[in-house]
Specification:
The structure is a homodimer. Chain A is of the alpha/beta class. Chain A has two domains: 103 residues, Urease, subunit C, domain 1; 287 residues, Metal-dependent hydrolases (TIM Barrel, Alpha-Beta Barrel). In chain A, the strands form two sheets. In chain A, strands 1, 2, 3, 4, 5, 15, 16, 17 and 18 form a nine-stranded mixed sheet that branches. In chain A, strands 6, 7, 8, 9, 10, 11, 12, 13 and 14 form a nine-stranded parallel sheet that branches. The N and C termini of chain A lie far apart (50 Å).
């Protein structure tokens, strides 16, 4: 495949016009300011009024929760969880979760997400749906304190089963080890997760200091912040994906900078649940490479990565009262390359020769993207998911001009409606 | 025209399913839970998976500024204004403004805006473009201090000329009187605007306390806040549209509640320029009926009303740390009915028999709107401009399923690109 005379977001996150990009064997083979010649049977894509960018990495999600979209609107957090969320989740089958996953995959592919990091249960079923879609994902089961000995827990079994299925753990679907959160764990669980991650060289995916209550509660329970306690129990000897981090101390920041911790900024969810606004300026200053996540659709309420870009850019300018804060370049690096790096996916997340062809083509021929005064700014402040005209993963086109190639949109919408009805009838 | 078995946002801003809605002579003629029979030659629109809502009122805009979208990204406010905005605006002709207006009209119609309130110059040219589009608008020239006597100012002349053109000032295009802001005015100008508005029974559209500097500066200059000073000079004897109001005192709130003042919340722009977040909770408590605006595209950076809904809902929950703050009902009333009321358009902005048929049809058959757990929440948190499948003003369809009926999209995009190039060449 050959993109001819396309505008790209290059490896330095600068806009570069009139470039040819050749895709071969799932990789970006050649990038040239000179015209490249097509091979025989090469598909040529005209780059006029098109912008080619690396795909987005959505680094914190609970994808099956699309079925809970909009449930319990306007309730406080505890009432929302106990009356709207938990009773529904308790009645979801593995099949329901697969259906919710497929619905979320449609949303993610449509908004230019090419890889995501997820925590839920029934990860074998979720992995099957993801594999069908050809999207990339790092999946984990969110372990919490339990009655059984650690080794006999369902989450451990599901994790090890999926590890066996995916083999080398280097493919499109990868397995992480999930630790739900400090406040839902005991020391046995945390130490068990730390050791198991070490043994299998897995990333640990967890929630850290999402709310003030949780943060303060940990200090009361352990005399330590959630991150400090997890470190105390050995978790930070592994690479860590730390969702939220709305409340972190100077010592937490130091830990994050020293260890291999990627905080994930989930701005929609933090706003919607009234958790607060994470101080990503402090993360930046401490040199911590953060990433961006949608969180689940129940608290977002969609999986649209462009909305996250807009929100992150706008809200922090407003809250800091500094319109110069967080330039598009920085934000776009967090949204792509840094997310891929957090998943331990190398040679990915950039438009660079030899890198994975995880690419998104944006149609610039839209009123809200004209004139093209600053396309990096347009991406962060004006572009919409609808502007995505192609989503490609490893050279495979998953979406193009209204059509999903690996997923049956109409069938998924019908199944999602039906599954939701049936779950509600069981509550 | 007859909508059959459609879901509507009813006059109480509740979701009501399976309703028939008949449109006749530009009005909502009949709303019925029973099936209505079509007259001969009535067009029937199947309401399956469709949501019919009143159109949005965008109550603060500078529509020609679409041509400045993305200019001066990442600059502080003063550098942005003086190096990116003013030099460009100085080279814009009336024709350029018409082109920028048309570009903005495309965006607004596409995102379900059916009426807007605007401040700029060359309002005769802008009015022509709006009239062609059949959208509704309250237009004004933003007057500021000048050398000439008040009566001889260009803005006064343009206002009176347009008033003559529109006749009774009760049509789709209406004329307001614009006062740019306290900090760009002198007492002669403000008193002149107050008297002229009184004489012609016009709404005064102005900017109030957008930034802390402006607010404090007024107190230094006049010993009064901007709103108090405008009141002192007689402005508040007229209905007032007060954009921004990020910084207002308890006395300002009292004034707003007593007089006919509609503060307009422009959250994208206030965030993007680092101005801060207006305390709309205090407005609510004081019983002040606020509306919502996009501001110009230079500081937004688009005219997409769904983004404003999302931002207003999410940001205030996050900033107040109260997930129960600002329920969809309240927000949707501000976005529609209250905006129309601020423009002195009666019997409009609601789905109610006898009201103007200013309606937007939303396609619910989208992954991010499934399942339909709570459609009012979906509108505020998940719906996209792309979900609008029809925008209707006064019974006229302005947009349907990808096609603008009154505007030539392709031509407008080409003209906007060309005009921008030529303006840049003149700087």
């Amino acid at each position: 495949m050959l993109f001819k005379s396309v505008t790209i977001l290059n490896e330095h996150f600068d806009i570069e016009k009139d470039v040819d990009v050749r895709i071969e064997d799932g990789k970006i083979k050649e990038i040239s300011k000179d015209r490249l010649e097509p091979y025989d049977a090469t598909r040529i894509i005209d780059g006029k009024h098109r912008l080619l960018i690396p795909g987005f990495a959505n680094v914190h999600c609970h994808v099956p929760m699309t079925l809970l979209r909009g449930r319990g609107e306007g309730l406080d957090l505890w009432t929302w969880l106990t009356t709207a969320i938990f009773p529904f989740e308790a009645k979801m089958t593995a099949d329901d979760m697969k259906i919710g996953t497929r619905l979320g995959l449609l949303e993610m592919i449509r908004s230019g997400i090419t890889t995501f990091t997820d925590m839920y249960l029934n990860i074998g079923a979720i992995a099957e749906a993801v594999a069908e879609s050809k999207l990339r994902a790092n999946l984990c089961f969110g372990l919490s304190a339990g009655e059984e000995p650690f080794d006999q827990r369902r989450g451990v079994k599901e994790t090890l089963d999926l590890l066996k299925t995916v083999g080398t753990n280097q493919g499109r679907v990868k397995v992480d080890l999930g630790l739900h959160a400090e406040y839902t764990s005991d020391e046995e669980t945390v130490r068990g997760v730390a050791a198991l991650a070490k043994e299998h060289q897995l990333i640990v995916h967890t929630h850290i200091s999402e709310t003030k209550n949780e943060h303060q509660g940990s200090i009361e329970r352990h005399g330590m912040t959630p991150l400090a306690w997890l470190n105390h129990c050995g978790i930070l000897e592994n690479p860590v994906i730390a969702a939220h981090c709305v409340y972190v101390t100077a010592e937490d920041l130091k830990l994050m900078a020293e260890k291999d911790v990627t905080p994930v900024h989930c701005i929609s969810s933090n706003l919607k649940l009234g958790s607060g606004v994470a101080d990503i300026g402090a993360w930046q200053k401490a040199g911590i490479p953060y990433a961006i996540g949608t969180d689940g659709a129940a608290s977002n309420n969609n999986l649209n990565f462009f909305e996250e870009l807009h929100l992150v850019s706008l809200v922090h300018k407003g809250v800091t009262k500094d319109p110069t804060f967080l330039q598009p370049k920085e934000l776009l690096a967090a949204a792509t390359m840094r997310g891929y790096a957090s998943q331990k996916r190398t040679n990915a997340g950039l438009i660079k020769e030899g890198y994975d062809a995880d690419l998104v083509l944006i149609d610039l021929d839209k009123p809200h993207l004209v004139p093209e005064n600053d396309l990096a700014s347009h991406l962060c402040h004006s572009a919409q998911a609808e502007d995505v005209c192609m989503t490609m993963v490893g050279g495979d086109i998953l979406y193009e001009d209204g059509t999903f190639t690996t997923l049956d949109e109409e069938k998924i919408l019908a199944e999602a409606r039906q599954a939701t009805k049936e779950i509600l009838a069981r509550i």
